[in-house]
Structure formats: structure tokens, C-alpha cells
Amino acid sequence: MHDPYGGLADLKAGFLRVLHGLSFHDDPTRAFRAARFAARLDLRLAPETLGLMAAARRAGSFDALGRERLGGELDRILAEPAVVQAFRLLREWRLLPVIHKRFDATRGFLERLQDARSAAARAGGVLGDEAPSQAEVLWLAVASAIPRPDRATLDRMIPGGHKARRRFREGAEKAKRAVSALAKAKRPSDAAKLLERLDPAELVYALGLAEGRGHGRWIDWWLQEGRAIEPAFGGDELLAQGFRQGPAFGRALDAARRKAWDGADWEAQIAAARAVLVKVGRDQAG
Length: 286
Prior knowledge:
- Belongs to the tRNA nucleotidyltransferase/poly(A) polymerase family.
- There is one protein chain.
- By secondary structure, this protein is mainly α.
- 65% of the residues lie in helices and 1% in strands.
- It is built from 17 helices and two strands.
- The protein has a two-stranded parallel ribbon with strand order 1-2.
- Helix 5 packs across helix 9 and helix 6 runs antiparallel to helix 8 (107-127).
- The protein is elongated.
- The termini are far apart.
């Protein structure tokens, strides 16, 4: 075997090494790939390589790194099983400010990242084809480490189009507010009204935020049961009751679904729907 760069010796020693002194100057994304592979393969940077990275950082080589290219590397890191270790390395190498100069690299961020990864693994089997990717969920943890007013200037990092970028800007707070409000939920319908507003990635991120809290049971209920519950009847039944089809049918069926979430029978559900339609009819007549 021809091994001109001593790669076998480095592997045996557990080192990751660049091939030339200007490697990080030429392509700063190599530093983020280094974190990904070092975390995945349990390697550490060779001392010389660590010095070259620090020199490139001091020289401002990372300042010119495009948002799209940086986002692509982060997206690959966020998909890794060893994502938390990769971000520990980025923190150790002082590269998190490349993402944002005020990136919150505290222990709390790493804990949110780990909880979100665990939640993505738990929810995957429940949500099936609707399950978000691990990276989609963990982008919300990254967003939580960046001041909200500044996220709009960074959303070009985010793969996936307009919806993913809006989630990056707003989703972490949506999930956090929902988890906080769940503490006051008394009935399944209270929880459902909060959780149905979240998209799958926000929902799974909320599951991670609720880790270790008693009201996290509401998210488990929603994932496993609540989101699939529908009223025991549809619009045809309301027509049969003598009501004229119109926009109020949606509100009536929503009222019936709230009753269904709370375990009410057909009679209670139809009564709730009928009450909505009767009130709408009176309001229109008045």
C-alpha cells in the first residue's frame, strides 16, 4: 500500500490532519467537515492542523464563507448521530461564532440539541411518513442559539425553501410557547388546540423541550392518539340535520372534534356542532 501522507499512522493514533498549510484558507468549510468526521469516527485534530485552523480563523478566512455553503455543511452535521459531539468540537475550536457572532454556545444549547435528537428518534416510529428529518428538528435548536431579530439575515443558510426558512425564524419560539402553555392544560382538547398549530418539526422539537416535564405527556398523547382523532360524523350528517352548508360547517366540525378529543360520544359531539350552527344562524338573522 502506498501511503505518502502517513494516513495509516494518523488513523492508528486517532488523528485527523489536513494535507497542506493553506487548507482552511482555501476552503473554510473543511473545518466543519473536520468536526463532522472527527465526531463520527472519534478522532481528534492533529496539533499542527489545529494550529492551522486557528491561524485561518485569526486571518479572517471564515469571514468570507457564504451562508449557503455554511448551511450545507451544518445540515450534514445536524443529520449525524454524533451531532452533539460535533458541536462540542466546533465550540472547542471557536467556530460557532462563524455561524453568528453571538451564538449561544453554553451547555444549555448542547442539552437542547441532545434532547431534540432524542425526540426525533422517539417520534420517528410514531409519525411514519410524516416524520421530519433529524436535521429539520435540530435546525430549531440552532435557531434557539441565535438572537431572534438576527435570524432573518441568516435564513439563506437553511435548505428546504420558504417554509423551512420561516420555521428557522419563528419555530423555536412557537414550540417553546406551546410547551409552556401545556402546563396549564386540563383536558386533552386544551393540549390539542396548542399542538395542532405546530408543524411536524416544531412538534418534535417541543417534545424535546418537554423532556423531564410532567406535561410532556400531552405531546406523547397527541403524537400517538390525539392528532388522528376526528369527529364521529361529517358534513353530510349536518345536512341531514337540516342545516344549510356554508363556512360555519368548518367551525361546527371543529367544535365536534374538541369534544371527541375529550372522549365525548356521538350525541355530545353533534350537540356541540349544532350549537355552533344555531348561534351562527341567529347572528345572521339578527
